Amino acid sequence: MPPPVPPVSTRLRSRLRTLAKTPPKAVERTYETLLSLEGYSALTAAARKDIFASIAFSANLWFQCLLDGSPPTTAVMEQIAAFARRRVHQNVPLRSLLRAFRLGARELWRTCTEFAEAEPTLAHELLFEISPYLLDYFDAMAEHIAEAYLDEQHQQARWRGSLLQQLYDLVFHAPDDAARFRETVEALGLDATLPRIALAVDLDLRDHAPSVREDALDRFALSAARHFELKPDALVRAWHRERLVFWLPCVRGDSMTRNDQRAAEHAGALARAEPRVRSIGIGLMNEGAHGWAASVEEALKAVDFAPRGSGTGDEENGNAARVHRFSSIAIEESVRSSANVLRYLVSLAGQLATEADLLATLEAWFASGQRRRQTAEALGVHPNTLDYRLERIETLLGAKLDDAHWIARLDIALKLRGATQGAERDVTKKQKKERGGAKKAKSAAR
Predict the structure, then answer these.
(1) Per residue in 207-221, is it b (16+ CB within 10 Å) or e — as a string?
(2) Do residues 184 and 240 touch, judged by C-beta distance below 8 A?
(3) What is the distance between the alpha carbons of residues 20 and 317, in angstroms, rounded to a whole number?
(4) Contact 260, 284 (CB under 8 A)
(5) CATH class of the structural domain 10-157
(6) Are 230 and 221 in contact (CB under 8 A)?
(7) What long-range pairs does 363-369 form, CB within 8 A, spacing at least 24?
(8) Is pLDDT above 80 for 419?
(9) What is the CA radius of gyration of the chain?
(10) What's residue 382's pLDDT?
């Protein structure tokens, strides 16, 4: 609670009563300074009006306390707390709010010194009785608003967490409920019609106990928001299939390609800055509950298609090797949806596997940009040997390696073979690990 009000002389009371009737210059000076602070400069006109009203209210309240000789009532203190709670929803940082109170106190102290200069007979009372009260009063009020602000922030976090869980359930379990999806997204203060891109982040959290994992995810989400140049609340997140999922807002009016490139550039910067990131998958731009879920599935496939530590990525676009775009494998994934086409393409690579070195030659040829000299150097063979192998590939498959359609076909076939072998290796490793664990358990039982 604010400190006791000191007694005020009759002469000073008369001057204070005059000031209380008209807003002092201190209010205007405080307001002008506030608009340059973080959180205040971007406020809407309605929010700025609310800010000005709260400054005037606080200044008049201080004068009224001096005139009445009593501290603010409980009802008035609740009004002050309401101001603080509104600042949470206006995204005004607490440090800016507290600085606003310090600015207000400074401007009122400046008013006191101006009184003292104009009327020397009031100088002693203003400087040695009223000024100390002013500082104690605003210290108490700052403590009160900080408590109200933090309490509201805590309540908002719990409320937001509940909404995010509801949104998760809608996206992955009830995507047909478009009305509830829209209501939930809008309740989070977001635009439900804005397309988004999903990111699936594979994080190394092995040294984080489950009890502190949520805090680690919170810190990572803040870092992600900075790298994607977004406010933290604009970055919707979820934990899905052992991956941290983000839905990034797209730029309305930009093409899918441009939004995809932008997401990849920012994801690359995030991967470089955060060593815990094993890999990041990026889905395609989409909207609505079904679209959000589809983008997540694409992001997960992008991560799974590129095995960990493979070093593949879109380096030419400045992205880290740990970033994998679904757009880079969209054709392969389309092929996977057709069993006959998939079997055909896999069989192309299978035919080459019957003769030693042909698959390695074709892979090196693609890796070298289909340049023969570089391919021969990479393989450590004579150019004539390379020519023989490439001719043998054409003969076996009935292909033409100068035909764009055949080049695309074989490129996809090799990628599908690589992905299949990577998945098989992962399964084999898992089975070996399980067998090893079973043997240890049996030994311990003996």
Answers:
(1) eeeeeeeeebbeebb
(2) no
(3) 63
(4) yes
(5) mainly alpha
(6) no
(7) 363/414, 365/390, 365/401, 366/410, 366/411, 366/414
(8) no
(9) 33
(10) 94
Instruction: Give the tens place of pLDDT for each residue, 240-259.
Output: 999 999 999 999 888 888 89
Q: Which residue has the tokens 């490139």?
A: 261
Is the model's pTM score more than 0.70? no
CB 259 within 8 Å of CB 282: no
Q: What is the mean pLDDT of the chain?
A: 85
Within 8 A by CB and 6+ apart from 291, the residues are 195, 196
> In whole angstroms, what is the distance from residue 233 CA to residue 246 CA?
11
Look at domain 339-439 and name its CATH class. Answer: mainly alpha
Q: Which residues contact 106 (CB under 8 A, 6 or more apart)?
A: none
**Residue 309: which pLDDT band, with cuts at 50, 70 and 90?**
very low
* C-alpha separations of 288 from 170, 186, 250, 422 in Å: 10, 12, 13, 33
What are the sequence ranges of the domains in the chain?
10-157, 190-328, 339-439
* Superfamily of domain covering 190-328: Reverse transcriptase/Diguanylate cyclase domain (3.30.70.270)
Torsion of CA 163, 167, 170, 171, to 10 degrees: -170
Cα separation, 282 vs 325, in Å, equals 5
